[in-house]
Amino acid sequence: MNYEELLNEAYEKLPKTAKTSERFEVPTVETIVQGHQTIIKNFSHIYQTLRRDPRHILKFLAKELATPANFDGTRLILQSKVPRNLIQKKLEAYIRNYVICRECGRPDTKLIKEDRITFLKCEACGAKASAKPIK
User: Fold this and answer.
1) Which H helix or E strand runs over 120?
2) Given this model, what pLDDT does residue 23 score?
3) What pairs with residue 34 in β-bridges?
4) From CA 114, how far away is CA 97, in angstroms rounded?
């Protein structure tokens, strides 16, 4: 095989997300405060955009905001009054730690658990880095 054929074969084997040049935008949190609860209305949109397990995001937000949290259909209910901008800031911290690749800066990653260690594996550049566990 010549160089051109090898190059074309390599391009065909690349993941589809590595070829796209679309810009990643952090989802904006939409909240409602009802009594002593804060409801994130668009939680399903957030975890689908980030391509993460909703329980993982829930666990992170509950720990960072120091409040119990649970699902209600497509919404997330926090058991205290929390300002929207604080939730947005914590979501951005989650994205920095568990979504964005540390090498290339792309959001095309997935969390992989090997033994007891969780890794952030980039589908775009192939980098692999350990991710802090959420306790």
Assistant:
1) strand 117-122
2) 66
3) 37
4) 18
CATH for the stretch 28-99: 3.30.70.3150
**Alpha-carbon 18 to chain mean position:** 17
Taking only the tens place, the pLDDT of each residue in 30-51 is 999 999 999 999 999 999 999 9
Taking alpha carbons only, the member of 87, 98, 95 closest to residue 133 is 98
The pTM of this model reads 0.80
Show me where the domains of the chain are located: 28-99, 103-135
Joined together, the tokens standing for residue 72 give: 């209600």
SS3 14: coil
Pairing between strand 31-34 and 37-40?
A: antiparallel
